[in-house]
C-alpha cells in the first residue's frame, strides 16, 4: 500500500465530507428514521469518492506530487491533468489544462465504450482460454465415463451389477468429482499465496502447467484409484486458476465493460465443454493398438486432449501486461503505469486511472483492522455482505442443474432413449448451445446488469427442468427423446447468459482489493465444493429418484435461487471496483426489505400497467458523475448503463 496522503489534503477531504453530513447512501424511510451516519458510526460501510470537494488547483498539485513521490517525474503534467479528470470523469469539457485531443479521447471513451487497445482484449480472451481446460475436463469425462468405468470394474447398471451397482455409482461420482473436491479443500486456497508470490500472470502460468500435466497423467492410469488421484491433483491447477483469471480480468477492464470482459471465463468454459464433446466423438471409435499393451486408448485420448488449451495459455500469458492493481499493491508504480498505458489509449487515461486507483485504495485500506483476511471477510460488514451475495450466486451455479447435464448428459440421453453415439451427438448440441448462447451476455451483462439476468433466467431454467422431468414419464420413445433434448437445450440457453457468466464476474468484483484473493478463493471453493457434491451424488440420485425426480429436484432449486437473488444479491454493474463499497454498505435487512417493497410496484407498473409514480430509490451516489448518468430502475435494483 502507498503512503497516506498528507495531512493538509486529509483535512480538505474531511472538511468536504462534513459540509454535507446528512447525505447517506441509503434513501428510504427506515434508514432515514435511523439516521445512519456511515462516515462516523460505520467506517466499514463504504468508500465515497476520495477526491470529492477538493479544488482543481489542489488536485493538480496532488497529481504532480504523486508523480514525484512514485518516481514518475517525467509524467508529472499528465498526472496533474489525470487527477482533475479522476474527480469527475464526465466534466472533461470544462477542465483547464486539457487540450482538444484530450477532450476528444475522454469523450470517445464514453460514447464508444468498446473502443480500447487490442492488448486489453488479448489479455482477457487469451487468459480466459484457460477456462477451456475446466470445460473440456467436464465434457471429456462425460464421454470417458462410458469406457473407463467398465474397464476398471465399475459397472453402474443394477441389471448387470446387482447389489454392487450402488457402490459403483458412488465410486464413479467420486472419481468424476475428484478435481472439484481438491479445488474446494485445497486448490482454491492456494490462490492468495500464488498471486502474492508470482503475480496474476505467474499464478495463471503455474496452474495451467499443472493442469496440462495432470490431464496427461490421468490418461496414463490403469485403475480407478490411480485415476482418482490424478484427477484430485488436477484440482490444484483448476482451483487457483478459476479464482485468479476472473480477478485478473476485473482488475484490468474499464468499469463500463468489465462484466462483458470478465465473463470471457464462462464463454471459454462453455467452449471447452463443446470442444470436449467434439473430442469424445472424435476418439469414440479409436481402437486399441494390436501390437501394444494399451487398453482403452479412446478414453485416454479423451482425457489427455484437455491439456491442449492449457499449453496454449502457457505460451501466451507472459505477453499480457500484469494487473495494475496488483503492481500497486506491491509498490511498483512505474510498472503499474506502464501496464495501464498498454491497456488504455493515452497516457492521460493511464495517469487518471492510476491516480484514482491509488486514492481509492488508500481509502479502502482504512477498512482493515489488521486481522487476517479470512477474519476480515466475515467480521467486516461490507465484506460479509459481499461474501453472502457471492456465495449465493456461486452455490446456485451448481444447483441450477447445469453441471449434472455437463457431466452425465450422455447417461441422461441414453435413459431418454438415445444410443451411445446419438447421446454424445446430443451432448455436442448441448455444448455448442452453451457456448453460442453466452454471446448475448457480452452486451446484456453490462446493460441489464447481473441481477436482471439472474432474475429473468432462473424461472426459465426451472420451467425447462420441470418439463424435462415430466418428459421422462412419456411412454412413446420418440416423443420422450424429443422433449428431453429440446428442454435440456432450453435450460442451457437460459443458463448461458445468466448463471453461466454472472457468478465468477460477480465474485471477482465484489470484494475489496485487500481481501480480494481470499474472497475469490472462498467463492470459488464454494462453487467447486457443490460441484463435487453434484458429481458425487448424481449417479445415485438418478437411480434413487429416477430421472423425473432428479430433474424435478433441480427445478425447485432454481426457484429458490430466484428468491435468494431477489433479496440478498445487490447489483454491481458499471461501478469501479472500489465504488462497490457503497453498494455493499447497505445492511442486508434493509436491502431485502427494499426489494420486497418493489415486488408490488413492479407488478402494478409492468403487469397491471398502472401509474405507480416515481420508484423508491435505494442508493444516492456522492460521485457527481455517477449521480448524473446512473439510475436505479425499480424492482431489480439495477443501475442504468452510462450514456453519452
From TrEMBL:
Residues 1-25 are annotated as: Disordered. GO terms for molecular function: transmembrane transporter activity. One of its GO terms (cellular component) is membrane. It comes from the Eukaryota. Belongs to the major facilitator superfamily. Sugar transporter (TC 2.A.1.1) family. The keyword DNA damage does not apply. The chain crosses the membrane at residues 170-192, 204-224, 265-286, 298-319, 386-409, 421-445, 451-474, 520-539, 551-569. This is And other transporter-domain-containing protein. Keywords: Membrane, Transmembrane, Transmembrane helix, Transport. Residues 123-573 form the Major facilitator superfamily (MFS) profile domain. GO terms for biological process: myo-inositol transport; polyol transmembrane transport. It catalyses: myo-inositol(out) + H(+)(out) = myo-inositol(in) + H(+)(in). It comes from Leucosporidium creatinivorum. It is found in: Membrane. Its main location: membrane. InterPro entries: MFS_dom, MFS_sugar_transport-like, MFS_trans_sf, Myo-inositol_Transporter, Sugar/inositol_transpt. It is a multi-pass membrane protein.
